[in-house]
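Re: that chain you flagged

S.,

Sorry for the slow reply, it's been a week of failed gels. I finally had a moment to sit down with the sequence you sent. For the record, here it is as I used it:
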Amino acid sequence: MQQPELYFDQIQQARARRDAGMASSARHAEQDAPGWLESAVAEVQRYAHDVYPADFTIEEARASIEHNLPRPPELRAWGAVTRACKARGLIEAVEGVWRCAASSNGSPKQVYRLRRAG
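Prediction finished late last night. Pasting the structure tokens below so you have them in one place:
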């Protein structure tokens, strides 16, 4: 059986690689189309308002709004968009709700909703 601290280190390393990949993808998107991240955040916020009170995955939002934006070099740039939206309090995760996404071979994806003040 694997030691807990070894498992924790592997998780931390995987998260660091994920974060580095998202940051790199977002930088490339900004180099190709300055302002891309802010435009994408605004589009996700608009989408969340439009579908409220329905929940959504970022993949569902992206499918609806990506025609309004330049295509980023890598779809991982959308991870930075999700993080920015959450950090600004625009959207929130729906606890315990996941949907499978075709964009990632049927892997479960977090479901979000518009974060309402109050």
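What I noticed first: The chain has a mean pLDDT of 88.

Talk soon,
D.
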